[in-house]
């Protein structure tokens, strides 16, 4: 829903560098009179400033929204709002400190501006503010990113879509590369003959400049209309001069070393494709995978060796050994790919181990060249559920079997995968994970990933530096160097005055002297950016004390250099008529901590999540709705149980947190109804590690800590801290609960008219943070913290002409489902809104793990 007032959207994302997507909309007298993106790139390190200016031309206050989608690899460094000459800056704090402010804001019924994942490569920053009549506001957001080289060029991809005419619209890019710029180009899909001359491009020696500044007349789609022609992609690409394989730059005690040798003989590859062919891959997914594999076979070189492993309930191989990519063998492989079909369960462990065994045998028997790169590319759309299904056991077995010899790339198809598991396993084996999005371009996504890793030029690359001269070195050893890419290493000198460095890769470099082109301490910030990025990556696979140390190092650098990372938050003080309001901006990561879960049990249940995960709702029946944004659809099911039954909602054996809910019914049974209404009338929240239990009913709140018991009512206003627990009760509204290092909850009191003949008061539960819950979290609700995917087949008429039936493939199960509607009470608490969804019968059987009675427990704790 569009908010009333003016809405400003500026989207910015990374392809190989970054892009900005401008989406502006003027409503009710608000005028956006200026929109500028200013990018300054020095030695691949981009400092970007987005500035938006607006004025309220109306005679009443209006709300302005500033939305920016940033590259997931970028770090926000600054944000400010200036209203009538007064600036309100953002400040960066440690996440736990900012979280307390967020919880207080939520407990007061306020919303929060968050950075959240919102696209394939993006995350959204949003903030809004009320502007008085005739007032002006300026939003300014800064972020930084190291541009990565792929296919021989650095690229900035700028999506332009203002949806309106903007008086002062400008994109300006300044590039400074000490090595010199060899090529610079800019193009736009929307560029007409009239707009062609508005792109200004110059480069000479070390400097390049791009500007795009169309006038109002040039922005018009036609001479007499107000529709903007600016709608499409604007792309800037460049590369640098390379007289030697590497380039080293030194500024103020820090150095950065770029290594990109050219004209190397290409290595042959030994590639094992390990493909999931379980039942959940049936339909479009398997057809797109086959399409991608056929195109990849066209690109495999004759010196390469390859094989296909298919896994579902069983394991099958194309050949028993690696096969050379001769024209005859490639033709045979194409026939094999065309006949691949999908069925059965998901034996992921068996597929990977078979692929590793084939690579091991090929090397032991000298079937492949000694100077060659061995790669495993695994694609799955689900989670292991046959054979070895414990993900920790699979990780250990795969790491032991590979033993550092091969690179593993894991591709997660859709949202049903355990992405954290795939990412850890890939990183432990010198590879990376990539999410593949189910869409019309899925085959292109798969082929594009293969293109990135299909041309290794060097293996086991190590750049060595004098140990007595260097401290705080970023990663300096790499499994592969790929054609058209670049290796970047940064570090700090022990002697800050040192201005040269000997590297065993190539020669010696002098200090970089052209200070006028440096924004701040650019090499120091580049070093900090790269160090934080790599610490966070190492943190994914670390445990115990090692993980704590990596977290502490990354947090310290994030705070020192003012980066919004997954460990920090930006607090924005928003001016309001009734006092200032705190807003929080968080940096998400892939996996369970990517979003803030909001659970509302009773009249409404909702979950605010990323587009890669599911949104959940439960109303008072209770019925459940799981929104799956990437499908633009939803799944729903009912739980039909009697009052007095207790359901396990969340159970995390790692943090010790459990949440159970007891059902209550109407005041008197409805004799005409086959199934009686039920609600959650009592919640039990416990943390066994803290020995704390919280019992909440619509009448009272009771805390048990060991033998101590403390009670409150909803008429109290309380702030309590004891034994690792923080409790805030807001009178007759809600309570906020934090339990040690675990998740935080808000319990909301829903009150009905006391003289209502049927209904009675009930409770809602919000989980503010899910990143403190482990990946082993389960329960009737906890299982859906992980993403879910499904496929609909064979839609046909059902028993009700208005509600067709279909076959749903979900969690490797085939279910008969019915198209219907369920109520979402968020927007209309009285009547609700009908949400179309695929209804899963029999208490969610086949969708939930096990059956619904598995979640019935004997007591609240």
TrEMBL record:
Record keyword Protein biosynthesis present: no
Subcellular location: Secreted
UniProt GO molecular function: serine-type endopeptidase inhibitor activity
Superkingdom of the source species: Eukaryota
Positions of the VIT domain: 16-145
Residues annotated as domain VWFA: 270-453
GO BP annotations, alphabetical order: hyaluronan metabolic process
UniProt-listed InterPro entries: ITI_HC_C, ITIH, VIT, VWF_A, vWFA_dom_sf
SMART domains in UniProt: VIT, VWA
An annotated GO cellular component: extracellular region
Purpose: May act as a carrier of hyaluronan in serum or as a binding protein between hyaluronan and other matrix protein, including those on cell surfaces in tissues to regulate the localization, synthesis and degradation of hyaluronan which are essential to cells undergoing biological processes.
Family: Belongs to the ITIH family.
Protein name in UniProt: Inter-alpha-trypsin inhibitor heavy chain H3
Provenance organism: Serinus canaria
Gene from which the chain derives: ITIH3
């Amino acid at each position: 829903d569009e908010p009333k007032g003016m809405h400003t959207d500026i989207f910015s994302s990374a392809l190989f560098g970054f892009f900005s997507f401008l989406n502006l909309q003027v409503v009710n007298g608000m005028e956006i009179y200026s929109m500028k993106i200013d990018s300054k790139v020095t030695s691949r390190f981009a400092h970007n400033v987005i500035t938006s200016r607006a004025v309220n031309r109306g005679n009443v206050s209006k709300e302005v929204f500033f939305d920016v989608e940033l590259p997931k690899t970028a770090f926000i460094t600054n944000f400010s709002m200036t209203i009538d000459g007064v600036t309100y800056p953002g400040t960066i704090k440690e996440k736990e400190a900012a979280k307390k402010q967020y919880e207080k804001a939520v407990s007061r019924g306020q919303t929060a501006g968050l950075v959240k994942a919102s696209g394939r490569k993006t995350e959204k920053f949003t903030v809004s503010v009320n502007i008085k009549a005739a007032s002006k506001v300026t939003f300014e957001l800064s972020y930084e990113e190291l541009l990565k080289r792929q296919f021989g060029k650095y690229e900035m991809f700028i999506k332009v879509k203002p949806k309106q005419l903007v008086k002062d619209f400008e994109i300006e890019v300044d590039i400074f590369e000490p090595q010199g710029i060899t090529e610079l180009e800019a193009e736009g899909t929307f560029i007409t003959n009239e707009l062609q001359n508005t792109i200004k491009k110059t480069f000479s020696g070390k400097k390049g400049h791009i500007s795009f500044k169309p006038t109002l007349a040039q922005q018009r789609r036609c001479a007499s209309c107000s529709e903007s022609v600016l709608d499409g992609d604007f792309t800037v690409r460049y590369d640098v001069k390379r007289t030697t394989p590497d380039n080293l730059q030194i500024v103020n005690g820090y150095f950065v070393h770029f290594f990109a040798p050219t004209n190397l003989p290409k290595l042959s590859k030994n590639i094992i494709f390990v493909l999931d062919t379980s039942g959940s891959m049936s339909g479009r997914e398997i057809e797109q995978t086959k399409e991608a594999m056929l195109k990849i076979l066209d690109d495999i070189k004759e010196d390469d060796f390859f094989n296909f492993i298919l896994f579902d309930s069983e394991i099958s191989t194309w050949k028993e050994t690696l096969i050379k990519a001769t024209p005859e063998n490639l033709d045979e492989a194409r026939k094999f790919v065309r006949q691949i079909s999908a069925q059965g369960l998901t034996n992921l462990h068996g597929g990977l181990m078979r692929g590793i065994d084939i690579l091991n045998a090929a090397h032991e028997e000298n079937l492949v060249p000694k100077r060659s790169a061995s790669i495993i590319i695994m694609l799955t759309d689900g989670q292991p559920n046959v054979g070895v299904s414990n993900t920790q056991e699979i990780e250990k077995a795969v790491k032991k079997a590979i033993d550092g010899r091969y690179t593993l790339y894991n591709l997660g198809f859709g949202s049903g995968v355990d992405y954290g598991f795939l990412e850890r396993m890939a990183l432990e084996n010198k590879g990376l994970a990539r999410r593949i999005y189910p869409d019309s371009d899925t085959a292109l996504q798969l082929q594009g990933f293969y293109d990135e890793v299909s041309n290794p030029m060097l293996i086991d690359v190590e750049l060595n530096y004098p140990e007595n001269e260097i401290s705080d070195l970023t990663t300096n050893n790499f499994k592969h160097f790929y054609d058209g890419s670049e290796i970047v290493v940064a570090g700090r000198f022990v002697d800050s005055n040192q201005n040269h460095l000997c590297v065993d890769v190539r020669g010696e470099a002098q200090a970089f002297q052209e200070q006028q082109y440096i924004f701040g301490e650019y090499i120091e910030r580049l070093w900090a950016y790269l160090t934080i990025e790599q610490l966070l990556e190492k943190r994914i696979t670390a445990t115990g004390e090692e993980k704590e140390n990596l977290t502490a190092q990354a947090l310290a650098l994030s705070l020192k250099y003012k980066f919004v990372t997954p460990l920090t938050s930006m607090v924005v003080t928003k001016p309001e008529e009734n006092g200032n309001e705190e807003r929080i901006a968080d940096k998400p990561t892939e996996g369970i901590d990517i979003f803030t879960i909001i659970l509302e049990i009773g009249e409404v249940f909702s979950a605010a999540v990323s587009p890669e995960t599911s949104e959940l709702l439960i109303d008072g029946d209770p019925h459940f709705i799981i929104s799956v944004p990437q499908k633009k659809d939803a799944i729903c099911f009912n739980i039909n149980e009697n009052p007095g039954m207790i359901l396990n909602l969340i159970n995390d054996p790692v943090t010790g947190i459990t949440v159970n809910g007891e059902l209550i019914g109407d005041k008197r049974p409805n004799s005409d109804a086959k199934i009686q209404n039920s609600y959650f009338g009592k919640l039990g929240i416990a943390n066994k590690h803290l020995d704390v239990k919280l019992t909440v009913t619509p009448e009272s709140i009771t805390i048990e800590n060991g033998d101590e018991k403390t009670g409150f009512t909803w008429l109290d206003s309380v702030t309590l801290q004891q034994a690792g627990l923080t409790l805030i009760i807001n009178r007759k509204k809600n309570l906020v609960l934090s339990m040690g290092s675990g998740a935080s909850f808000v319990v909301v009191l829903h009150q009905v008219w006391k003289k209502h003949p049927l209904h009675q008061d009930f409770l809602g539960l919000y989980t503010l943070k899910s990143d403190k819950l482990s990946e082993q979290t389960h329960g009737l609700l906890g299982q859906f913290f992980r993403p879910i995917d499904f496929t609909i087949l064979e839609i046909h008429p059902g028993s009700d002409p208005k509600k067709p039936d279909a076959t749903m493939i979900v969690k490797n199960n085939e279910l008969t489902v019915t198209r219907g509607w369920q109520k979402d009470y968020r927007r209309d608490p009285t009547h609700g809104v009908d949400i179309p969804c695929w209804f899963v019968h029999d208490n969610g059987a086949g969708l939930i793990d096990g059956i619904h009675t598995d979640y019935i427990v004997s007591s609240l704790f």
